[in-house]
């Protein structure tokens, strides 16, 4: 199937059929997405049947541990990394903080500099900048103050003397939203002898990372922004993971996925993350089956459609988990770009707002931040009367806003969506913006 089946997608998200939310269009996905049914079902089952200490010999405990292991194994396969190269933590901010402690110890011993950007959310900026307090050199890769663009030529200058050991940057900013050329940046850093740490929090909801294609050494994102529970996922390539000093219990240092998790895991939420893999697989199966449709045959729904999809999926060649994730990624992005274009066209016709980041839909994530002539939170409040759920503020992106000359006291109005958003909801947003602005 060449386009996303939006009806099928929306049926996977209970919030979208919740009577209490009827008529409300959700445009705050960059702060946290709705949760898919597959995750909710697994979380509910875990709390009902498996809320015991995992990995003990009795049946409930065995089932709990097996489901936690399933989450790590299946998600790792979808992103093209070894199972033990994926770690779970309480959030991306917490994971990045722990990682920075490991880098501090490594660089104090080995020497070298760290590169940060002023395009980042503070979680992937502040912890690295504080390394300067320990005498570690921190270099800033700066954005264009007009466009927010992060030019790789600026990084090349910072890498020139060969002292940089780590480059930290976002896949895309949570306010600028331009999709950075991660593979190009990682190749530049590697050629200069540096590792890379990519903050994928603002991009992963639009498609899971293909780590082989990106070439990143470390990639972090949050599952609560990617249709799941409140967890942070940290992908760490073995080479860098074994090089950095462990931050967990000393007796766990030999297990890669435990080296940078000093606290015990949230068993239920880790297990529920397997629901993300269920969801990706369900989308892949459904669209593969729909692609084998029989011309003008009448459509079916409900249990018959589920049975039909399953039969066709079994009959079709079985791609690898990574290939399935790539195809789902494509479907998601093409749908998002198609919905984003009319919104950007509408904003381009106004002279009373400033769009942060590119005006071309294919170059950005569907996170739209606007600088206005009044406090953004006031506009968000007015939009709420039109059934639009959005908000205003700095969104912890203080550095890029200041670099672009945006008044922090006003902040920006941010409207963000993902692939489960419908054309009707975007049309509702556009009408509301016309009325409010």
UniProtKB/TrEMBL annotation:
- Positions the record marks as coiled coil are none
| Listed PANTHER family | CYSTEINE DESULFURASE, PYRIDOXAL PHOSPHATE (PLP)-DEPENDENT ASPARTATE AMINOTRANSFERASE SUPERFAMILY
**Which GO MF term does the entry hold, naming one?**
lyase activity
Q: Which Gene3D superfamilies match?
A: Aspartate Aminotransferase, domain 1 (3.90.1150.10), Type I PLP-dependent aspartate aminotransferase-like (Major domain) (3.40.640.10)
Q: Provide the alphabetized UniProt keywords.
A: Lyase, Pyridoxal phosphate
The reply on keyword Protein biosynthesis is no
Annotated Aminotransferase class V domain residues: 26-244, 332-429
> What protein name applies here?
Selenocysteine lyase/cysteine desulfurase
Q: Does the keyword Lyase apply?
A: yes
Q: Which domain of life is it from?
A: Bacteria
């Amino acid at each position: 199937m060449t386009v996303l089946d939006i009806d099928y997608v929306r049926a996977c998200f209970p919030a979208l059929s919740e009577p209490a939310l009827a008529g409300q269009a959700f445009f705050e996905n960059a702060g946290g997405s709705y949760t898919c049914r597959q995750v909710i079902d697994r979380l509910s089952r875990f709390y009902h049947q498996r809320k015991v200490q995992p990995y003990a010999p009795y049946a409930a405990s065995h089932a709990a541990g097996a489901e936690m292991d399933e989450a790590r194994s299946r998600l790792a396969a979808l992103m093209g990394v070894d199972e033990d190269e994926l770690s779970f933590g309480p959030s991306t901010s917490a994971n990045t903080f722990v990682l920075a402690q490991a880098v501090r110890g490594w660089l104090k011993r080995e020497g070298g500099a760290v590169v940060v950007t002023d395009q980042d959310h503070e979680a992937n900026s502040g912890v690295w900048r504080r390394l300067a307090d320990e005498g570690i050199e921190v270099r800033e890769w700066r954005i264009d103050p007009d466009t927010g663009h992060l030019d790789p030529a600026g990084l090349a200058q910072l890498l020139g003397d060969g002292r940089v050991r780590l480059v930290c940057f976002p896949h895309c900013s949570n306010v600028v939203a331009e999709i950075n050329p991660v593979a190009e940046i990682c190749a530049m850093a590697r050629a200069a002898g540096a590792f890379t740490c990519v903050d994928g929090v603002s991009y992963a909801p639009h498609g899971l990372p293909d780590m082989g294609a990106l070439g990143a050494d470390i990639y972090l994102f949050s599952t609560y922004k990617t249709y799941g529970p409140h967890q942070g996922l940290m992908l760490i390539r073995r080479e860098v993971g074994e090089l950095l000093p462990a931050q967990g219990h000393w007796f766990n240092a030999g297990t890669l996925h435990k080296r940078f998790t000093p606290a015990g895991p949230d068993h239920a939420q880790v297990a529920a993350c397997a629901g993300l893999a269920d969801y990706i697989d369900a989308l892949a199966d459904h669209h593969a089956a729909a692609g084998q449709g029989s011309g003008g045959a009448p459509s079916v729904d409900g249990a018959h459609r589920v049975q039909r999809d399953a039969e066709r999926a079994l009959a079709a060649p079985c791609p690898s988990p990574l290939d399935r994730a790539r195809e789902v990624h494509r479907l998601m992005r093409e749908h998002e770009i198609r919905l984003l274009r009319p919104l950007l066209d509408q904003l381009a016709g106004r002279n009373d707002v400033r769009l942060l980041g590119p005006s071309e839909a294919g170059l950005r994530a569907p996170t739209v931040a606007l600088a206005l002539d009044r406090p953004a939170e006031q506009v968000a409040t007015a939009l709420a009367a039109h059934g639009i759920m959005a908000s205003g503020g700095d969104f912890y992106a203080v550095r890029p806003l200041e670099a672009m000359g945006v008044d922090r006291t006003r902040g920006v109005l941010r409207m963000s969506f993902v692939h489960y958003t419908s054309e009707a909801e975007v049309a509702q947003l556009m009408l509301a913006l016309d009325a409010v602005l």
